[in-house]
Automatic annotation (TrEMBL):
UniProt-listed PANTHER family: SIGNAL RECOGNITION PARTICLE 54K PROTEIN SRP54, SIGNAL RECOGNITION PARTICLE SUBUNIT SRP54
UniProt name for this protein: Signal recognition particle protein
Localization: Cytoplasm
Source organism superkingdom: Bacteria
Quaternary organization: Part of the signal recognition particle protein translocation system, which is composed of SRP and FtsY.
The reaction(s) this protein catalyses: GTP + H2O = GDP + phosphate + H(+)
Gene designation: ffh
Organism classification: Bacteria, Thermotogati, Deinococcota, Deinococci, Deinococcales
Keyword line: Cytoplasm, GTP-binding, Hydrolase, Nucleotide-binding, Ribonucleoprotein, RNA-binding, Signal recognition particle
Organism of derivation: Deinococcus caeni
E.C. no: 3.6.5.4
Family: Belongs to the GTP-binding SRP family. SRP54 subfamily.
Top-tier EC class: hydrolase
Domain SRP54-type proteins GTP-binding: 267-280
Function recorded in the entry: Involved in targeting and insertion of nascent membrane proteins into the cytoplasmic membrane. Binds to the hydrophobic signal sequence of the ribosome-nascent chain (RNC) as it emerges from the ribosomes. The SRP-RNC complex is then targeted to the cytoplasmic membrane where it interacts with the SRP receptor FtsY.
Record remark: domains: Composed of three domains: the N-terminal N domain, which is responsible for interactions with the ribosome, the central G domain, which binds GTP, and the C-terminal M domain, which binds the RNA and the signal sequence of the RNC.
Length: 435
């Protein structure tokens, strides 16, 4: 998500230029554009205005730091403020040793039931004893859906009956806990299609009776502007304690997370990243801010590489990036899953790749074949690959000389890009380094 906003900000800040000093006029122009970009990314107007005001205040009169350019200084300020607005650091809900009761609240379709299942799996894996309560009597299939998820995760579920009173629900939960000790009860409450007073009253009643220790508002990242109203209303009515932003894997724009967090001031605990049970991550404001600025989810990339135990993915000095490294990386990448997804995690890639870009498996195999037909000397020093060698490699790998030319050109471009990225995140640009 957030790519559109990232691109936009990057374009604007390229224009701020390389001057050493930030003038008021420059800051004003950049901020106007940033506000526009935020609005286009579906950030609520008031939130965007406040955000820009805060950055402006810090930017005017700010001397350009160290070896940063004026443009980079603004990026750093925007980046830092984005992190701050998104909550600063990663925060997780507090858990007592027992008696934890969490309410899942939100609009219908936001991903409440799915997130309930995900939380159950997450906390079960941490050794918690979870009980799920299917209290979404509003959406017809919700209770059955939760039952299926509970089975999948391996936790018990208690289904609330139509028309059951809050007192009755509480009694049933208490009864269950007497015979089957559980330290975390997660209640999937009735979803609303839109803000609905009667249903909100019902939810408030259930809350009064059950006294949840957390009320987690589930917000769909795709809802943009609407996220602010939803978050505000739920917070006023049922005192939200934390947020879960779902569908962060979609191509939603950045607005929802920023707006919901800003208006409630409540921490975003988790991000939903797929429809699957495992698709729940702790929310990392620094990573998301990096993505907003188009710097890529570098930590996400490293984590995936570590998961796959891929020491070879360690980036070398860009000047040393030879064809052997390219081959090694391509082979590792092929093991790591859908290439399009992965490439988007590389800093700058989301900007460099054309819309709808995808390298297919066959193409990777072709590149592999071409590099495999080179001698070690050629791979380490592609400069020596002259016309004669190109012909030999082409024949050896079953390709045309033109294909070899294209590959060598691509390698040169990748090398240039890596150099550029290193300059951007090098020691002189401390604040710009991905977190
Ligand atoms: P509820 O009405 O709030 O309980 O919504 P559901 O849990 O039924 O979710 C609505 C739809 O969103 C379902 O199709 C889910 O599979 C999907 N969904 C929920 N969370 C995510 C997520 O993080 N990523 C994606 N891609 N889909 C999600």
């Amino acid at each position: 998500m957030f790519e559109s906003l990232g691109n936009k900000l990057q374009d604007i800040l390229d224009r701020v230029g390389k001057e050493r000093q930030l003038t008021e006029a420059q800051v004003k122009a950049a901020m106007r554009e940033i506000r526009m970009a935020l609005l286009e990314a579906d950030v609520n107007f008031g939130v965007a205005k406040d955000f820009v005001a805060r950055v402006s205040e810090k930017a005017v009169g700010q001397s350009v730091e160290g070896s940063l350019t004026a443009g980079q200084t603004v990026v750093k300020l925007v980046h830092d403020e984005l992190i701050e607005t998104l909550g600063g650091k990663t925060i997780q809900p507090e858990l007592k040793t027992e008696g934890n009761v969490w309410f899942m609240v939100g609009l219908q379709g936001a991903g409440k039931t799915t997130s309930t299942g995900k939380l159950a799996a997450h906390y079960k894996s941490k050794g918690r004893r979870v009980l799920l309560v299917a209290a979404d009597t509003q959406r017809p299939a919700a209770r059955d859906q939760l039952e299926v998820l509970a089975k999948q995760v391996g936790v018990p579920v208690l289904k609330v009956a139509d028309g059951e009173s809050p007192a009755e629900t509480k009694r049933r939960v208490d009864d269950h806990l007497k015979t089957d000790f559980r330290d975390l009860v997660i209640v999937d409450t009735a979803g609303r299609l839109q803000i609905d007073e009667a249903l909100m009253d019902q939810l408030a009643d259930l809350q009064r009776v059950m006294q949840p220790t957390e009320s987690l508002l589930v917000v769909d990242a795709m809802t943009g502007q609407e996220a602010l109203n939803v978050a505000q209303t739920f917070d006023q009515r049922v005192n939200v304690t934390g947020l879960i932003i779902t569908k962060m894997d979609g191509d939603a724009r950045g607005g929802a997370a920023l707006s919901a967090r800003s208006v409630t001031g409540k921490p975003i605990y988790f991000a939903g990243t797929s429809e699957k049970i495992a698709g729940l991550d702790a929310f990392h404001p620094d990573r998301v801010a990096g993505r907003i600025l188009g710097m890529g989810d570098v930590l996400g990339l490293i984590e995936r590489a570590q998961q796959a135990d891929l020491k070879a993915m360690e980036v070398k000095k860009p000047g040393d990036f030879d064809l052997e490294d390219l081959l090694l990386q391509l082979r590792q990448i092929r093991k790591m899953g859908p290439l399009g997804d992965l490439l988007k995690l590389i800093p700058g890639m989301s900007r460099a790749l054309p819309e709808g870009f995808n390298i297919d498996e066959a193409q990777l195999q072709r590149i592999d074949a071409m590099i495999s037909s080179m001698t070690v000397k050629e791979r380490r020093n592609p400069k020596i690959i002259d016309g004669r060698r190109r012909k030999r490699i082409a024949a050896g790998s079953g390709h045309s000389v033109q294909d070899i030319n294209k590959l060598l050109k691509m390698h040169e471009q990748m090398k240039d890009m890596m150099k550029m990225l290193q300059r951007m995140s090098g020691p002189g640009a401390k604040g710009m380094k991905p977190p």
